[in-house]
Amino acid sequence: MLLITVPSAGKAKLTFSTFEDIDLPVPLNGIVAEINGDAVLKFDDEEDAINYAGELEDLSLKLNNKSSLENIAINDIILAIRDDEFVQSYLQNN
After folding, report:
1. How many CB atoms within 10 Å of residue 10?
2. Which among 38, 49, 50, 80 would be 20 to 30 A from 90, CA to CA?
3. Domain total for the chain?
4. Contacts by 21-26 with C-beta closer than 8 Å and gap 24+?
5. For residue range 5-58, what is the model confidence (pLDDT) as tens digits?
6. pLDDT recorded at residue 16
7. What pLDDT was estimated at residue 92?
């Protein structure tokens, strides 16, 4: 199980409830909320996280308003996934 935290201090101020409020796709293994409000994404492995980031990138390309909360939240999530040390290691070795 791979857990990736998306800080609530990002540009979108993303929290667990933001996913429901703006109807963002949720990873297959779900999301949990930390006490400080951060959203923690749950994945089977690094490949699962990368695939989810790709799904979000595709969604972002379809959005007309690039400054919308939805698009900003998507970018925060993608950055959190790409910045994860396990994902970076996986990408370097594959």
Report:
1. 17
2. 38
3. 1
4. 22/69, 22/70, 22/73, 23/70, 24/56, 24/70, 24/73, 24/74, 24/77, 25/52, 25/55, 25/56, 25/59
5. 999 888 989 888 888 888 889 999 999 988 788 899 999 999 999 999 999 999
6. 84
7. 94
Q: State the pLDDT at residue 54.
A: 97
Give the C-alpha separation, 62 to 12, whole Å.
19
CB burial class (10 A; 0-12, 13-18, 19+) of residue 62? exposed
Please, where are the H alpha helices in the chain?
16-21, 46-62, 69-83, 85-93
pLDDT beyond 90 at 80: yes
31 strand-pairing partners: 41
SS3 state at 45: coil
Coil vs helix vs strand at 43: strand
Residue ranges making up the domain that contains 21: 2-93
